[in-house]
Amino acid sequence: MPVQDQGDNPSAEIPAAGEAARAPCPSAGMFGGMFGGLSGKLLWLTVFFIMLAEILIFFPSVASMRIRWLEERLNTAAAAAIVIDGLQPVELPRALQKETLEATGTKAIVLRKDGTSRLLATTDMPTSVDEAYDLTDVPPATAIRDALDTLIFGGGRMIRVYGPVGDTNTGVEVVMKDKQLRTAMFAYSRNVLLLSVLIALFTATLIFFAINRILIGPIRRLTGSMQQFSSDPENPAHIYIGDGGRDELAVAGRNLTSMQMELQKTLKQQKNLAALGLAVSKINHDMRNILASAQLMSDRLVDVDDPMVKSFAPKLLRTIDRAVGYTTEVLSYGKASESAPRRRQILLLELTQDVKDMLAIDPQSGIEFAEQIGADLKVDADGEQLFRVIHNLCRNALQALTAPGEAAPGGVRRITVAAQRVGSVVSITVDDTGPGMPLKARQNLFAAFRGSARSGGTGLGLTIARELVLAHGGTIALVEKPTVGTQFRIEIPDRPVSLEDYRSRTHLEK
């Protein structure tokens, strides 16, 4: 009965996540998001910044309005003063003076001409004046300060205002209450505030719809695609399709599409690996039984008196033992974990000779197997795991040398395993004179199912070798060489000696 993995029915495992991803959020609608989503935040921030700009503009504006209002009063008073001055030496009747002052909104009018001042009209002349303002040349800062002073503290003060009449040397001065001025300034401020609010709302609305179309809409599409993809990542219909623009969101959309496609490929590979792991587990179970039977039968070869059988029997037994060990560790590798190395000092030359015997190179093939390793060179490693590493590399080299249509330059076909110790590190190189590694294999080096150098290969050999070397705290890398062929370098450091081991060794030596 076939076993169904989680990838066959994703909705059976994550319905809650899918439902949560498809559930409408508070900011899903245009008007719902106006108050709680990114659109609403942009809208209110736009209103706030426009109002802030209007406030900064308001102070110079109201100061300018105040100056204009006072200048209008001075111009009206100046026109009346010129008429009254033209009636000299006749004095203006008291009733007419009162009507003139009421028309100009002042309490007194003074004409300054030729260095003299003349009181032309007055009624209810105050005993004191609270503030005096000269409109000849008012700095902006002074105008703003006086405007704020009138708005905050004005309304019941008597002020004196002086200014020139046109471009002449004649000046006019009036005394008046600032109540009408303050009332006019408040009316102006109210109108400015109302207009500012309308401009802010109108501008913010335009900006809102523009940003919602240019920015918020594509972002919602991106997030919606992410939610749909997370609910069912194996569905190709949930891959985001961008609009092909050149802005940042379009670039982000293309990157999201690429990421989703790569993730789907990875999920497909993981699903295939899960199916492969199940198949390998079944094969491994039967293979262990077959190898156990072969192991029992091979044990009887030791008792045979044939010299040739006696010479091959130990190697055959070691080979079967390794095969049994491999089948035992297949399941742990399928779980993406290798057993911890059982390290000890081993002679590297003996291990390399076992690799040579395991390869069983045909003498008629013309392929040489060279060993450049000192007889006493030892490496601190797990013998079985290091055997697998060197065997995988040598087997890849042998396959490259025996591949059809691949001729070694100069007719030399050789696999060379060399090693040397530098301090506490043993460096091992596996070199061949084959055609070299293709570019695709170099780009996907140590990647399972993608790093194979030959057609039909899986690339698992290099992947397993890398994991085993890393478990020893070492490194494995492809070495660039001036000649053709492929060379790998393995560096395995010795285990650090603990203080207890050092003391025990020193005690035994004494």
UniProtKB/TrEMBL annotation:
<dbReference type="InterPro" id="IPR036890">
    <property type="entry name" value="HATPase_C_sf"/>
</dbReference>
<dbReference type="GO" id="GO:0007165">
    <property type="term" value="P:signal transduction"/>
</dbReference>
<feature type="domain" description="Histidine kinase">
    <location>
        <begin position="282"/>
        <end position="496"/>
    </location>
</feature>
<feature type="domain" description="HAMP">
    <location>
        <begin position="213"/>
        <end position="268"/>
    </location>
</feature>
<dbReference type="Pfam" id="PF02518">
    <property type="entry name" value="HATPase_c"/>
</dbReference>
<dbReference type="InterPro" id="IPR005467">
    <property type="entry name" value="His_kinase_dom"/>
</dbReference>
<keyword id="KW-0812">Transmembrane</keyword>
<protein>
    <recommendedName>
        <fullName>histidine kinase</fullName>
        <ecNumber>2.7.13.3</ecNumber>
    </recommendedName>
</protein>
<keyword id="KW-0597">Phosphoprotein</keyword>
<keyword id="KW-0067">ATP-binding</keyword>
<keyword id="KW-0418">Kinase</keyword>
<dbReference type="GO" id="GO:0004673">
    <property type="term" value="F:protein histidine kinase activity"/>
</dbReference>
<keyword id="KW-0472">Membrane</keyword>
<keyword id="KW-0547">Nucleotide-binding</keyword>
<dbReference type="InterPro" id="IPR003594">
    <property type="entry name" value="HATPase_dom"/>
</dbReference>
<keyword id="KW-1133">Transmembrane helix</keyword>
<keyword id="KW-0808">Transferase</keyword>
<dbReference type="GO" id="GO:0016020">
    <property type="term" value="C:membrane"/>
</dbReference>
<dbReference type="InterPro" id="IPR003660">
    <property type="entry name" value="HAMP_dom"/>
</dbReference>
<dbReference type="GO" id="GO:0005524">
    <property type="term" value="F:ATP binding"/>
</dbReference>
<feature type="transmembrane region" description="Helical">
    <location>
        <begin position="192"/>
        <end position="211"/>
    </location>
</feature>
<feature type="transmembrane region" description="Helical">
    <location>
        <begin position="42"/>
        <end position="63"/>
    </location>
</feature>
<dbReference type="InterPro" id="IPR004358">
    <property type="entry name" value="Sig_transdc_His_kin-like_C"/>
</dbReference>
<dbReference type="InterPro" id="IPR050980">
    <property type="entry name" value="2C_sensor_his_kinase"/>
</dbReference>
